[in-house]
Design a protein that fits this description.
By secondary structure, the chain is α+β, with helices and mostly antiparallel strands. It is built from two helices and three strands, in the order αβββα. Strands 1-2-3 form a three-stranded antiparallel β-sheet, covered by helices on one side. A hairpin with a 4-residue loop joins strand 1 and strand 2. The longest helix has 11 residues.
């Protein structure tokens, strides 16, 4: 099973997104300057669908 967490965080940082705070459970809250909103990022992303949903929320045009 693929782990997407590391690649997702690298893509977020490359596009100017940054960590804001820890959320509930193993989620972190990140901010996207592209969309201007905060969004959750799971600590263990094992599904490409979840990884793609995070990319969509952040406004980054990248598909896994």
């Amino acid at each position: 099973m693929a782990e997407f967490e590391k690649v997702v965080r690298i893509k977020l940082k490359e596009n100017g997104c940054y960590f804001v705070r820890h959320g509930k459970g193993d989620h972190d809250i990140w901010y996207s300057p592209i969309t201007g909103v905060n969004f959750p990022v799971d600590g263990k992303i094992k599904s490409r669908h979840v990884a793609n949903a995070i990319m969509k929320q952040s406004g980054i045009k990248h598909k896994f």
